[in-house]
Amino acid sequence: MEESxxxxxxxxxxxxxxxxxxxxxxxxxxxxxxxxxxxPQRPELSWTVFGLVLTVIAVLLLKHMRDALFDRxxxxxALVSLMCLTVLVFSSAYFVxxxxxxxxxxxxxxxxxxxxxxxxxxxxxxxDIAPRGxxxxxxxxxxxxxxxxxLTAAATSLTGRLRRTAARPPRGAARDGDDRGPG
Length: 183
Description:
elongated; 2 strands; disordered C terminus; 68% helix
């Protein structure tokens, strides 16, 4: 059963209104959650958690990219949220790695890590933070590959969905070639 145009618009508006608090919550959690249980003192646990979290996000991204092809509701919000979560996971990894002496020069805080993550995502570099160790360089390579494969595909799915939604005529509106006019 199809939704009416008004209910669909209200559903989309509610979904987008949920996005701001959700993303804000992710960023608050990023800055508040303790990450001291991970790091150089527990490398096996750290790499396992990092790999599992990225795998779960990748699976969810793929699911929601598929949903975007079928114009399922809530897809755009889910994709944006997962893209933000990906940035925060890589940022957390950089922050944790920075506690291992020799891995990073200039990365000391979570804000530094977020800054560096976004610079890497945007393929920019200001030279104030430099990876020195092999673990730092490995995570950077993983971020670049993950971005190419998953975030680029997610952004493409999201923009395609938004374009289709914007191009869709309102329900009940006459379409081109429709000869139901006045008279």
